[in-house]
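Quick log. Single chain, no ligands specified.
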Amino acid sequence: MSVLRNLEARIEGLVEGVFSRAFSSQVQPVEIARKLAKEMDSHKTASVSQVYAPNAYTVWLSPEDHERLSGYTRSLTQELSAYLLEHARRQDYALLTRPEVTIEVDDRLRLGEFGIQPRLVKPPVRQGESGEQGRHGHTMVYSAAPEKTKEPRGSKRHAAPLTQTRAIVSMHDRRYVLDGPVAVLGRSRECDCVFDDQNVSRRHAELRRNNSGDWQIVDLGSTNGVKVNGRRVDTSRLAPGDDVNLGTVSFTFDIQA
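-> predicted structure:
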């Protein structure tokens, strides 16, 4: 078994032990590890001779998840750092320092959501100085994968091929990753993507994915309506790069395969 698989097994072992109790089937350390590796891949930078990857990562948790994790942070960050180090070696990425992972709380996140913000930090030139920090990347916000429900015994599957794309909602310094097939947008904390603005209705609109992986937005009878690229719509198919307005709040839509 490779070192990487050993690390995965160790993290999964933690999940089955204290961390599974800490997270109570919401945010799981294995999922955080996989998304950290994904962010490392997404933010690599090529030079003439090497490919550099971020070496500092902040993981943002909701207050509830952060509270449940209290007491286990040090062990988890060490495991995640080792996981990223092996991932970088396997991908032949250059690192300025060993990857460092810190865990912080973000009051805007709900139970089951977590954000990841990568950055490149240059080591200090002199002892005692702090490292030079590059520009912070976007904070990618993920939701914990929902538990799969078991089908009743004897039930038949009608196997229609599904394309499992994700919707990306980007606004300001945040990007939300929505698994679908349906995601509710609105002001209510119960929505999949929360907009803290009085011009947004509690349940303003839905993003819906079809079998081919395309997405559409549907107005749920909101007060201030939905616009796509400046045009008022009740329902509209969305394409990557479309500008969407919910009342006076805007975001950019994208699709992740």
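The longest strand covers residues 249-256.
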